[in-house]
Predict the structure.
Amino acid sequence: MDVASTGIQEPFDLIRLSLSERVFVKLRGDRELSGVLHAYDGHMNLILSDVEETIMIVEGEGEAAGRVNVAKRKMEMLFVRGDGVILISPPART
Amino acid sequence: MLIFSVFKTLTDQRVTVELKNDLSITGTLKSVDQFLNIRLDSIKVLDEARYPHMMAVKNCFIRGSVVRYVQLPAEHVDTQLLEDATRRESLNQGKR
Amino acid sequence: MSSLQGYVDRRVLLILQDGRVIVGTMAGFDQKSNVVLSDSKERTFSEDDGVQEVPLGLYLVKGDQIVLIGEIDEAIDSSIDLASIRAEPIASIHY
């Protein structure tokens, strides 16, 4: 993929080309989202639909210390505040 | 600006605001400003048994910077309109 | 500004970034949502004991420390037996 064929020159171009596509978002606090991207701005505030959130909870004490519990939940339409966003990954292209 | 406008179109709708301290509050969106500070009416805290702290609070002002998520009413969000507006705004930013 | 104007002279409840809960009468505020409370008290929550109220008097809270400001329904608030409420304190905000 070169610049001419994708039109990607800046990081935000990659996000713009992911509009209306399912993206993977990594957030602070061991959270990840998968959802369809409908809007974003320069702060990386996002609006996603059909969202699945995954929270990784590492057990801190007792027998299970160090084991990772995974909690999942679904949300229909979600605004995500940009200050929590670590990365946005576009859908895999084939 | 775009996100601010989206929230303005959702005035008087029910939304759920999830804060960075894990508190979730459902309420009627009364107003929003450019910092994305939010005013909610007729609020209900999720998991009231765990969070009785706000039992006597009926409306509130939430600082934008402490918001993690806002769950929006999907039927009041025009996703096509959002995508077009986002493309337009990103082009305008490129020209600056 | 999603204004705090409606809260002036009302009893309000503040939740702060460190999880503290403060009630008081909103005497004033400014653009940065700095808030002055009169007749204010901190409510401390615990799982083992009822809610304690610690008098703070006239108090200025910096806007950037505030998570939330709620208007208290005084009829409901006065009907609550604080001593009977058991709850863990609210978590602090981590970015």
Notes: Strands of chain A lie at 22-27, 31-40, 46-58, 68-80, 85-89. Residues 11-84 of chain A form a domain with the SH3 type barrels. fold (CATH 2.30.30.100). Chain A has one domain: 11-84. The helical segments of chain A are 3-6, 11-16.
